Task: structure prediction
Amino acid sequence: MVSLASLWLPILVSAVGVFIASSIFWMALPHHKTDWRKLPNEDAFLNAVRSQGIGGGMYMFPGCAPADLKTPEAQERFKKGPWGSITLLGAPPNMGKALPLWLLHLVIVSVLVAYVIGHALGAGEPFKHVFRLASAMAWVAYAGGAMPGTIWEGKPSSFAAKAIVDGLVYALITGAIFGWLWPHAA
Result:
């Protein structure tokens, strides 16, 4: 067993490594440029949303409580369509707030990876053992939510596929850094 405190360096370095990789993926590489499309009549849509006076949050349409699903009115709304969900931000995007929160998330993932592999492996384990277990744990953390977004929220499968591949790269970075900086046997 390896204590969490003795893994502070791989925790921080892996979080920073994934932060840099994710920045490159989202800002420099082209594969995420087609994830979101512009609405065909954006001005009319924005005016309609503004006229509702709703704040930030997640909304589903047509909306109704599960008990109401059996009513003829609800069934008619569902037959007519459209169906969907929308997430409205309560304020304009703020990179100054989002990027530190993203880095905090990455640190938390690295702490959880360190916790699990620190209990599973001892000091002096070979690189490949640390790499394999740390990468697997990190991949679950980084890519585990991609498919549920496709299944339950209607996100395109291409978005999930890219998130899974991105998550795999982040996991391999995490695993390599943990393997490189893993404590030696005493």
Observations:
- The mean pLDDT is 92.
- Residues 64 and 131 are 48 Å apart (CA to CA).
- Strands lie at 57-61, 84-88.
